[in-house]
Design brief:
single chain; mainly alpha; Arc Repressor Mutant, subunit A; 4 helices; elongated
Length: about 90
Amino acid sequence: MPAVSADDTPDLEARRQAVIDSYRVVCICNKIRRGTIQKAIAAGAASLGDVRRLTRAATGPCKAERCGPRIAEMLALARSPGCGDGAG
C-alpha cells in the first residue's frame, strides 16, 4: 500500500467525502441516492422531469415536495461554470 503524503491528505479526504455523499438518499419516498441523480445529470438530464424519467426520483407520494428542491439545487450546480458534476 503506498504511503499517503501530507499533500495528498486534503484530496483524499475530498474523494472520501464525495463517495459518502453519493450514497446519501435524496428521494426518501423511492430511496434514490445522490449518486444516481448525479449520474442522470451527467448523462444529460437538464430538468426535474428528465431526472424523474431517468431515476424515478420525485415520483413518490410526496410528489417532489421533499426532494424537488435538492434536485433543483443539484441541477443548478451542474449548470454553473466550473462545477460540472453537481457534487455541491
